[in-house]
Batch of 2 targets.
Target 1
Amino acid sequence: MTPCEHCHTSPATVHITQISNNEATVSHLCETCAREKGIMVEVRQEGLLPEIGIDIQRQAQAAPGAAREDARECSHCHTKFAEFKATGKLGCPRCYEEFEKDIASMLAQVNGEHLHKGKRYSRRGASLMAGADLDKLRRELADAIGREEFELAALLRDTMRGLQAPRTDGKN
Amino acid sequence: MPPWLSGNGPDSDVVLSTRVRLARNLAHHQFPWRASLFERTQVFEETSAALTACAGCGSYEAVAFGNLDKRQQEFLVEEGLASRELTSGDGDRGIVHDRNSRVGVMVNEEDHLRLVALDAGLRLRELWAELDALDDTVGTHLDYAFDNRTGFLTCRPANAGTGLRVSVFVHLPGLALTRSLDPVLHAASQMGVATKSFFGENSSVTGNLFRLSNGAAMGSSESQLVDNADAVVRQVIEFERKARERILADARLELTDKICRSWGILCQAKLLTVDEFFNLSSALRVGIECNLFDKCTLADLNRLTLFVLPAHLATWCGKALTPDECGEARASLVQTFFARNAQETKLDENG
Ligand SMILES: [Zn+2]
Ligand SMILES: [Zn+2]
């Protein structure tokens, strides 16, 4: 283990890369010295996405009543929470509602965020469909405002505007 | 040869190819691993009908994996449009692709649909724009699983949101030789771009080839993800070019020696492993990229890169090969290729 460059005693666990004049320099510090230098220490597996399965396992072990949690299943496809924990795979799109809380906290951990800010989608086939979509969006918008989730509310409003506007160029 | 191996895209002195993919699922079906064989057939039929029929998709061709033997499946994986996951599944699955093998859709892989675009050189923005348009068209014919908060729903939550994964395949011999790979790739990872081995998840690094990919699929828009990856990759490219300049200034003779020795081995060896081929061809690649070597082109090396892989090699030989036979066949293929190449060049010069 390399010792910390600052205190020379604790092992260096924080590796900081700085780029100036197109030269990369690396400093190796222990967590305490890094914090003293005002560097935010964020524990993240280097380079790769942390395996989702492992993350949930850690959470579930800490939580009391883990066995009961594991036995929960999606009412639609019957995938058990334990199965998801072991493989990292969900069984169907409805699983996202059934395990909503667990998935949201996991996504926040992996991405630092659990709100989708990219493309919006609504099926534009029949106008009947668009009508149904609008009603659903109206309900979701009211919910979002009720929970003071204003970022989501703004995204939903954009989607509704896109749906109501006549479609011209095939884009939202 | 698939266009992503042409060796002449933008920044082709460092970048081999760019790949962009979008994960999409149908709202009213279970994900492929969970779905019954019957349901998978439904999904396959629904999506391939939508893709081959919809205007704006050009002329698409569907390849059902169920009708192919293992070697034919592996062959398509090596060509880049199919994934290994697709070969290990069962039931109805496959790819629907355009005539140039540039844009395609994998059906019933980990997700119902994986839209993929790949081409030579650094072309993130261009390929994203193309895939975005294809996604819009396909999306009107199918019913995607989408949630206003979580975005596009995928089998693994880590892909949910945009469902976007961009990958740039790069050759970094300069950074490797100057021992600056770790700091540069570490800096890239801090800026949201992860490094993976070129040959898939479980293989060790070979031939100084790497794959740079975005980490998060959520939290920013697709174009922000693409722009960020593009900016980070461009910085990595600059570091690589600086490193090569330094080597050329300090150790030109040593580098030339390494290139010539590698050429000698490739032309004379009687047995070649895939690893060996990639390490030796990495030296030739630097030689071409730095104008120190002109006995073959990047396109030649790319073509060989594909031909030396097991399924292509077996196809060339017309039979299944034992590991020992593979090494011998590989060396002989490489030498036949270079000999034919030299003859063609001579003919060009004379005529
Ligand atoms: Zn210290
Ligand atoms: Zn489910």
Target 2
Amino acid sequence: MIAFVIRRLLQSLIVMLTVGFVAFSMFNFLGDPINNMVGQDATEAEREHLRHVLGLDQPFYIQFLVYLGNALQGQFGMSYRLGMPVVRALAERLPATLELVFCAAGLALLVGVPLGVYTGLHRDRWLSKVFLTLSLIGISLPTFLIGILLILVFAVYLGWLPSFGRGDVVDLGWWTTGFLTVSGIKALILPAITLALFQLTLVMRLVRAEMMEVLRTDYIKFARARGLTNRAVHFGHALRNTLVPVITITGLQIGSLIAFAIVTETVFQWPGMGLLFLQAVQFVDVPVMSSYLVLIAFFFVAINLVVDLLYYFVDPRLRADRAVASGHG
Amino acid sequence: MQNEPLLRVDGLRVEFPGRRGTLVAVDDVSFDIAPGEVLGVVGESGAGKSMTGSAIIGLLEPPGRIAGGSISLDGRRIDNLPYEEMRRIRGKHIGAIFQDPLTSLNPLYSVGRQLVETITTHSDISEKAARDRALALLQEVGIPAPERRIDQYPHQFSGGMRQRVVIALALCANPRLIVADEPTTALDVSIQAQIIALLKRLCREHGTAVMLVTHDMGVIAETADRVAVMYAGRIAEIGPVRDVIKNPRHPYTVGLMGSIPRMGHDAERLTQIDGSMPRLTEIPAGCAFNPRCPYVFDRCRVERPDRMAVAPFHEAACWKYADGVGHA
Ligand SMILES: Nc1ncnc2c1ncn2[C@@H]1O[C@H](COP(=O)(O)OP(=O)(O)OP(=O)(O)O)[C@@H](O)[C@H]1O
Ligand code: SF4
Ligand SMILES: [Mg+2]
């Protein structure tokens, strides 16, 4: 167990170093950082001076080490566009994105898993067929189109929900939340549904496929032969066995939810990191872009780590003591 | 024969409706099992042994279905019960053991949990009492150090040990009948005999009747009281095990017996049956065995033989024994 955790931590570290290197390289490939800071009309001497002050005349690897050192201390430089530390800019936007992603993931699981179980257990009911057909639509419609359709119906036509922004938020000092106000929650509904829909259909289809697979196994037949109730067979034995793939996919999907929130945030003008990133791209605001990259990678890595640890709790076969199997007999 | 059968299967027919017509996997199968009796069932692959067993425990997989006949336990019909009522019978009155112990246990739960849940499903006792019973059962099926083993997971047990756990699970509500479908086929040859001996001993001690499906005539000879030989979905011959082995009547059984070498018999008896069992879609008219039968005659190709008595309690479905030959 400990060895496993250490191994996974090391792998994560390597991934983060690689991403860090890419993020660092962006500074050198996307325009001249000095130009970005001082503008066109600075003299050559001023530029040299700044170059020296910033350490840009140092060898490449030294610069990278300095970059890593700063990153470890939470310093990712100043945003060219906003004129404030990148970390602060991201920290301001992080709660909006994470709350949106959290709600979308929760929605996808809370609706997707039961639908998957239902359609997996009752393949031939007409309701299952309705769900499956709807899920096909959910999977094939692009996110922005779903968002726009929702806005059209619920914001423009019915006027029930706002079409953009985050509503009123409450500042808790280290976090701003929209959960505590009515307008905040109302504003969250449409973007969360938009972001969740694709994942929801994915989770539903995955759970359905896994359920059908597991229900064919010998241990399910044997569980029935032991006279266990349908509830115990379906939820105790079958569903539990579908969890490993569901956890994997969900974990990976939360990572991509954070990344793909960009589209949803744009459609709904949601003040999250995705929107910040898009604006940064327009201005070639390299510190923001590269830091966003590092942060997203960090989320992916962290979530993967958690997923791997969850396996241990779900599947006893992965736990360390596999050597105890007894001899013949 | 016996006064009150525990299980009575009468004219059982199992069908698989399909696009290209209906397949009849089990056709007009009838037999009784008396309390505590061991009925061996043999036959080539695809003969319908497992389907018969699945029909008895009410777990035919759709689209397979019982299309005719009846199954009664203690005089009560069980083939047409609603799912929930049949569920209460499964495990409690009829236990089942399947071929592969490696895949019969849920890998995610400890063997103790699987035992306890089965016990508490069928009787109204506390978790604690159920656990004590589980420990006693593990002991009974010969698992060393049950206190340590009970909380382990299936992957921590060897194949033979797992099949012992499966037997414990099948026995844990003290059923009166166990349907054991090739319980040792997947196991290492060296431990097959032990498992069969264990099953035989436990069932004798508990007075449990067994329908034992196997390919192994040796196992039948040693374990069963009676044997039913199935061919192409029907029972070709059924009778007391000694009688059938010593004096098989149906030409198919004769061939089967010929294919196991036995001591004290010369090589001439080791005849093999040529050809293979017809597929369900291509069962010939008349006797299903006629393309392979060395004794085939005209009637066999036209008319299907019913089972006829060939000796006391011993019947064969073969035209050779029409006209009461068996009563001689
Ligand atoms: N889902 C299905 N659809 C159609 N036919 C099926 C299906 N399942 C089984 N059968 C047929 O039912 C027949 C009886 O199968 P069964 O499993 O009872 O044979 P068996 O005697 O147990 O053979 P084995 O020794 O291989 O276990 C076979 O011929 C098989 O082709
Ligand atoms: S009925 Fe005819 S073909 Fe069938 S087993 Fe008897 S002799 Fe052979
Ligand atoms: Mg079989």
